[in-house]
C-alpha cells in the first residue's frame, strides 16, 4: 500500500504483459471464479474474497513480501469474530467498496456467493465448497433440497453472520478461497449455465459496465478466446488507485514458448519450471523470483486398482523407496533442501519430535513389503500418471520410476492434460477412476483453508474431492477425531499441539504419500517494480499488491 516501506514509490502509467502458463495455470479462457484451479492468480486481479493471506514482511531480492505465510488479513471484510456461543461468526465488511460498474458492494453479494458456490446445479463443485459444508444449512443446499443457506444471514449492508453446525475455529480459513461475485449480474445467469457462460470473460466499457464484475484493482477490458485477456485499471479501487494502466495476459501452449517471448521482450512476467532456473539466473533481462507454492507434491496409490495400496506398509514402502533429497537437488536445483515432507505440513512447528520420518531406505521398503506379504512384481506394469506436463516433472517422475524399480514396482509414465487426467483420476458419475499411481499437487495445510480437513477427513462433502477417489474413501484410525479437535480449538497456541497430532497420524498412515512441498518460480522483467511473487505461481489467495505494480 502507499506509504509501506517495503514498496518502491512507483509511478502511474503503462502496460505489462504476462504469461501464466505451465503447472500453475489452465489458460486465458478460464476466468470462472467458481471453478478456478490454477488460474487463481489471474482472477484475483479482478475479484476478491472476504479475507486473504499476508506473507512475512521480509525483503528477498526484489520481492517485498518474501517468506512464508504471515496469516489471514482483511480483504473485503475488515474483521471477523466469534460469538460467545462459539457457533456464530460476525464479519464486518469494508465500507464504501464498489463493483467495477460503480454500484455498491454489500452483504447481499456475500450471501449470494456462498449459496452459488454450494449449489449442485453449477456443475463442478466450487473450489472451497468442501470446507463450507460446516455452515448451517449447507448440506441442504449441497443436496439440492434448499436454495437459502440458512447459516449465512445479512444483518445490514456491511455486516454478515455465519453460523456453523458445531464450533469451527477454522471457519475464517474455510471461507478464504471463496471469490465474492456480484449478485445483480450473476443472478441473471441460469445456474446450470454458470460453468460455461460467456459472462466471466465479457469485457467492460471504459466506465466499468457491460461485462464481468469484480471489486479488484483491475477490470476485464478485452478478450480474444484462446488468445488473450486484458484488464484495465480500476480507478476507484478501495485500497488505492493502481499504477499500471493495463495488464495483458497472452496464451501460450507451453512454458518454453513463453520464455522465448520473455527473452524477446514481448512478455514481462512468466512462470518457469525448475529445469529453467539455472540458465535464467544469468539473465540480464529479468530476475528469477522463487516462492513456496503452498502445494504438497504427493503420490496417490489407488486401492480400487491396486488392492495392496490399502495396506499402510505398502504406502510407507513407496515413500522409503524414493530418494527425495537427491531429486530435490538434481531436478529442482535446491542445494540444501528442507522441504521434504513427513506429513502434509511443511511447517516445522506442526511436526512433533516423534513424527515418523522417511529417509531414503530401499531395504526398509523391501522389508515392509515382505512383512505385509506383498509382491509388487505381481502388479504388472503400473501407469504412473500426472497432469504436470513440464520437463522438470517428467525428470522427477523418471527418478521415482528408477527408485520404484529397485523394490519391484514397474511403472510407465503418462503425462496428461488436466481435463483428461481429471477424468482418469476421478471417473464420471458413479464410475470410478482408472488411475493406479498418480503424481498430484495436494493439500498444503493452512494454504488450502482447512489444515487437511478436506483431504484427510473421511466425511468429505463431495465424493469427487479431497479424501480418496470416486467410489473409495480412506478412513484413517484417529484422524477424524484429530481433525475435529483442531476445528474445535479457538486458542491458536493450543491448536498447534493438536495440529502436531494430525501430522503424527498422517506421517504414519501416508494416505497421500507426501513427497515435498514445491517451490515455484516467476521470471520477471527488471522494468517491473513492486511485483509480489510469494507464494509462488498458482498458489491462490494471498495479497499480491497488484495496485502497487509499476513500470520503472
What's the gist of this structure?
The protein is of the alpha+beta class and 552 residues long.
Give an overview of the whole structure.
The two termini are 17 Å apart. With 552 residues, the protein is an alpha+beta fold. A hairpin with a 3-residue loop joins strand 10 (218-224) and strand 11 (228-233). Helix 8 (312-321) packs antiparallel against helix 10. The chain has a domain at 294-519: Dipeptide-binding Protein, Domain 3 (Dipeptide-binding Protein, domain 3, Roll). The model is unreliable at 56-69 and 461-465 (pLDDT under 50). The chain is built from 15 helices and 20 strands. Helices cover 23% and strands 21% of the residues.
Helical amount among residues, as a percent range? 10-25%
CATH class value of the domain at 294-519: Alpha Beta
Mean pLDDT across the residues is: 88
Number of strands: 20
Residues in β-strands, percent: 15-25%
> In DSSP terms, counting alpha (H) and pi (I) runs of 4 or more, how many helices?
15
Task: Show unreliable segments.
Answer: 56-69, 461-465
Secondary-structure class: alpha+beta
Shape: globular
What CATH architecture of the domain at 294-519 would you give? Roll
Within the largest sheet, what's the order of strands?
10-11-12-1-13-18-14-17-15-16
Largest sheet: 10 strands, mixed
Separation of the first and last Cα atoms: 17 Å
CATH topology of the domain at 294-519: Dipeptide-binding Protein, domain 3
* CATH homologous superfamily label of the domain at 294-519: Dipeptide-binding Protein, Domain 3
Mind sketching the topology for me?
Blueprint: E1 15-19, H1 40-43, E2 51-55, E3 58-60, E4 63-66, E5 69-74, E6 77-82, E7 88-93, H2 107-118, H3 138-143, E8 152-156, E9 159-163, H4 171-174, H5 183-186, E10 218-224, E11 228-233, E12 246-250, H6 255-263, E13 269-272, H7 274-280, E14 286-301, H8 312-321, H9 324-330, H10 362-371, E15 382-386, H11 391-405, E16 411-415, H12 418-426, E17 437-442, H13 453-456, H14 479-488, H15 492-509, E18 513-525, E19 528-529, E20 550-551
Parallel strand pairs: 1-12, 1-13, 15-16, 15-17
Antiparallel strand pairs: 2-5, 3-4, 6-7, 7-9, 8-9, 10-11, 11-12, 13-18, 14-17, 14-18, 19-20
Helix pairs in contact: 8-10, 14-15
Amino acid at each position: 500500500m502507499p506509504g509501506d516501506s517495503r514498496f518502491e514509490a512507483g509511478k502511474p502509467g503503462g502496460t505489462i504483459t504476462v504469461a501464466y502458463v505451465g503447472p500453475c495455470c489452465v489458460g486465458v479462457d478460464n476466468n470462472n471464479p467458481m471453478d478456478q484451479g490454477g488460474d487463481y492468480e489471474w482472477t484475483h486481479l479482478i475479484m476478491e474474497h472476504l479475507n486473504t493471506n499476508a506473507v512475512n514482511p521480509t525483503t528477498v531480492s526484489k520481492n517485498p513480501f518474501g517468506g512464508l505465510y504471515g496469516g489471514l488479513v482483511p480483504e473485503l471484510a475488515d474483521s471477523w469474530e466469534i460469538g460467545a456461543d462459539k457457533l456464530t461468526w460476525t464479519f464486518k465488511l469494508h465500507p464504501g467498496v464498489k463493483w467495477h460498474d460503480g454500484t455498491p458492494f454489500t452483504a447481499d453479494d456475500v450471501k449470494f456467493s456462498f449459496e452459488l458456490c454450494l449449489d449442485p446445479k453449477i456443475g463442478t463443485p466450487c473450489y472451497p465448497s468442501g470446507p463450507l459444508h460446516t455452515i448451517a444449512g449447507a448440506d441442504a443446499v449441497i443436496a439440492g433440497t434448499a436454495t437459502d443457506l440458512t447459516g449465512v444471514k445479512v444483518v445490514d449492508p456491511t455486516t454478515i453472520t455465519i453460523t456453523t453446525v458445531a464450533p469451527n475455529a477454522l471457519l475464517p480459513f474455510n471461507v478464504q478461497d471463496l471469490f465474492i461475485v456480484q449478485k445483480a449480474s450473476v443472478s441473471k445467469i441460469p445456474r446450470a449455465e454458470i460453468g460455461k457462460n460467456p459472462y466471466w470473460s465479457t469485457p467492460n466499457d471504459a466506465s466499468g459496465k457491460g461485462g464481468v464484475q469484480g471489486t479488484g484493482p483491475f477490470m476485464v477490458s478485452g478478450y480474444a478466446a484462446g488468445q488473450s485477456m486484458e484488464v484495465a485499471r480500476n480507478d476507484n479501487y478501495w485500497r488505492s488507485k493502481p499504477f499500471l494502466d493495463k495488464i495483458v495476459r497472452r496464451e501460450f501452449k507451453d512454458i518454453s514458448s513463453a520464455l522465448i517471448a520473455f527473452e524477446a521482450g514481448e512478455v514481462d512476467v512468466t512462470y518457469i519450471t525448475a529445469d529453467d532456473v539455472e540458465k535464467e539466473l544469468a539473465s540480464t533481462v529479468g530476475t528469477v523470483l522463487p516462492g513456496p507454492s503452498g502445494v504438497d507434491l504427493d503420490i496417490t496409490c489407488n486401492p480400487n486398482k491396486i488392492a495392496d495400496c490399502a495396506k499402510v506398509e505398502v504406502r510407507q514402502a513407496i515413500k522409503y523407496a524414493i530418494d527425495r533429497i537427491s531429486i530435490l537437488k538434481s531436478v529442482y536445483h535446491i542445494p540444501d533442501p528442507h522441504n521434504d515432507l513427513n506429513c502434509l505440513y511443511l511447517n516445522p512447528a506442526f511436526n512433533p519430535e516423534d513424527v515418523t520420518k522417511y529417509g531414503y531406505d530401499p531395504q526398509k521398503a523391501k522389508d515392509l513389503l515382505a512383512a505385509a506379504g506383498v509382491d509388487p512384481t505381481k502388479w504388472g506394469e503400473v501407469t504412473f500418471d500426472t497432469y504436470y506436463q513440464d520437463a522438470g516433472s517428467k525428470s522427477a517422475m523418471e527418478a521415482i520410476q528408477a527408485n520404484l524399480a529397485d523394490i519391484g514396482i514397474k511403472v510407465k509414465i503418462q503425462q496428461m492434460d488436466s481435463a483428461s487426467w481429471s477424468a482418469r483420476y476421478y471417473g464420471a458419475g458413479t464410475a470410478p477412476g482408472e488411475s493406479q499411481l498418480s503424481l498430484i499437487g495436494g493439500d498444503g495445510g493452512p494454504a488450502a483453508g482447512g489444515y487437511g480437513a478436506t483431504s484427510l477427513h473421511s466425511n468429505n462433502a463431495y465424493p469427487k474431492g479431497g479424501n480418496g477417489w470416486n467410489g473409495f474413501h480412506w478412513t484413517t484410525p484417529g484422524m477424524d477425531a484429530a481433525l475435529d479437535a483442531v476445528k474445535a480449538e479457538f486458542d491458536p497456541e493450543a491448536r498447534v499441539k493438536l495440529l502436531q497430532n494430525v501430522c503424527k497420524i498422517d506421517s504414519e498412515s501416508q494416505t497421500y504419500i507426501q513427497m515435498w512441498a514445491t517451490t515455484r518460480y516467476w521470471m520477471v522483467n527488471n522494468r517491473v517494480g513492486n511485483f509480489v511473487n510469494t507464494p509462488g505461481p498458482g498458489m491462490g489467495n494471498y495479497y499480491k499488491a497488484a495496485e502497487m505494480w509499476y513500470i520503472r
